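Subject: for your reference before the review

Hello V.,

The reviewers asked for a structural picture of the protein, and I figured it would be easier to keep everything in one thread rather than splitting it across files. Below is the amino acid sequence we used in the manuscript, unchanged from the supplementary table.
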Amino acid sequence: MTEPLRDFRHSLPMELLRAREAAMARFRPVLREYGLTEQQWRVIRVLADNEGIDASEVAARSYLLAPSLTRILQFLEREGLVRRAADSNDQRRSVLWLTQKGRQVFDSVGPDSERRYEEIEAEFGQDRLEQLYELLADFYTTLNS
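And here is what came back from the structure prediction:
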């Protein structure tokens, strides 16, 4: 006889998804105001901190699958937020940057996003939020080693 599964509401993947949804519910209205999806914002955030990197590195840092990233980059390029250029060291490889318009979007969304972090911190507590960050980092490291 097999062991019964734990209650669905207390499965780790479901609890992590619930927590993610609760957090994202705070940020989605900000992103909608600027006409961005969560995934588009993640790419913009990655490029704001790591300009001149290739698409595979953007995919890894933003936790996006390559096909999704391809569509997102096409949209961001069409909107004039991202530009692509050949790598000066390897012409077969292209690297990505935020355009001036992309940087302006980042600079506009950033303060609104930061206000959401402040609200979460005020409700949940700064110490508890820091502890959560540490626990999640430890959890990730443990499961990926």
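For the response letter, the relevant points are probably these. The mean pLDDT is 93. The CA atoms of residues 55 and 95 lie 7 Å apart.

Happy to draft the paragraph if you're swamped.

O.
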